[in-house]
Write a structure and sequence with these properties.
- The structure is a single chain.
- The protein is built from 11 helices and 9 strands.
- By secondary structure, the chain is an alpha/beta fold.
- It folds into 2 domains: about 140 residues, Rossmann fold, CATH 3.40.50; about 150 residues, Aspartate/ornithine carbamoyltransferase (Rossmann fold), CATH 3.40.50.
- The protein has a 5-stranded parallel beta sheet.
- Helix 4 links the parallel strand 3 and strand 4.
- Helix 1 crosses helix 5 and helix 3 crosses helix 4.
- The protein is globular and about 55 Å long.
- The protein starts with 13 loop residues before the first helix and ends with a helix.
- Bound molecules: phosphoric acid mono(formamide)ester.
- Phosphoric acid mono(formamide)ester (CP) binds next to helix 2.
Length: about 300
């Protein structure tokens, strides 16, 4: 991979995604063996710039950068000069002037990472931009699938939940289609945006249709903070008519796994039993998150595009 930035999964080729996954699998193996001292980013600096809340993404980027030997600084919009009216572009220029090498950005506006990337010399990694993309989440999802099944080509992946507001669903769709998986989607009509069929998704009319024969069943969080109301009557009714439970999972393929990007609304998108059960790979996804982010930072740093 020879890119300055990782902004989404529409741009990278199948080969670039496979290169990230191959290195990610190696990083995951070494992390499991207890290794925490890698030298790939020795002498480099990484700033995480988060304008939205995060636990998994921010912490795993910070750990990934530290395990790789980088200097790391975390900036939250709530405690930065953004509160005094400083623009994103001026914030980026300030970080560039400090000779910073990487900016990992999460922003509520779709396209903010692209704007920043066009302005700064540092490598920019999109850690989630509005309802647009969350490429590193999708890549960590692929890492968990690839490690478990040994391949992604030919897998049937069912994605159920708040697809309208989900950047995770879009990045998964773009990447999984490149890697040769079948992507099914199911949501209440009010939470299903138009246009995903044209991008290769199979839009299903029931939970059972989506999950039928699926190898991977991925629940997506109901994004309460992005709902304007009226998309569904209540969380209880959502769980009853749209959530994934043990009865729905009986339609999945033998050996199917349950995934969720987190944070989970327990008992809404997935039952407690599925979240904590044998088929759940949700904790594995968290380790994949550190490994795949180590791979992305390493590969961007090795390239010549700056
Ligand atoms: N999956 C995900 O992006 O989680 P956080 O919001 O905790 O980073």
């Amino acid at each position: 991979m020879n890119r300055k930035d990782l902004l989404g999964l529409l741009q990278p080729s199948e080969e670039e995604i496979e290169e990230i996954l191959t290195l990610g699998l190696e990083m995951k193996r070494r992390l499991r063996a207890g290794e925490k001292s890698f030298g790939e980013l020795k002498g480099k600096s990484v700033v995480t710039l988060f304008y939205e809340n995060s636990t998994r993404t921010r912490c795993s980027f910070e750990l990934a950068a530290k395990y790789l030997g980088a200097h790391v600084v975390n900036i939250s919009a709530s405690s930065s000069s953004v509160q005094k009216g400083e623009s994103l572009v001026d914030t980026g220029k300030t970080l560039d002037a400090m000779k910073n090498d990487f900016i990992v950005i999460r922003h509520p506006m779709g396209g903010a990472p692209k704007l920043l990337a066009e302005t700064v010399k540092a490598h920019v990694v999109n850690a989630g931009d509005g309802m647009n993309e969350h490429p590193t989440q999708a890549l960590l999802d692929f890492l968990t699938m690839k490690e478990h099944f040994g391949k992604i080509k030919g897998l049937k992946v069912a994605i159920l939940g708040d697809i309208r507001h989900s950047r995770v669903a879009k990045s998964n769709l773009y990447g999984l289609k490149k890697l040769g998986a079948e992507v099914r989607m199911f949501a209440p009509a009010t939470l299903m945006p138009a246009g995903l069929a044209a991008m290769g998704a199979r839009i299903c009319s029931s939970r059972e249709e989506a999950v039928g024969g699926a190898d991977v069943v991925m629940g997506l969080r109901i994004q309460l903070e992005r709902q304007k109301g009226g998309n569904f009557p209540s969380l209880g009714e959502y769980a009853r008519f749209y959530g994934v439970n043990e009865d729905v999972m009986k339609f999945a393929a033998e050996g199917a796994i349950v995934m969720h990007p987190g944070p989970v609304n327990r008992g809404v998108e997935l039952t407690e039993g599925l979240i904590d059960g044998q088929q759940s790979y949700i904790e594995d996804q968290v380790l994949s998150g550190v490994a795949v982010r180590m791979a992305i930072l390493t590969l961007l740093g090795r390239g010549t595009q700056r």
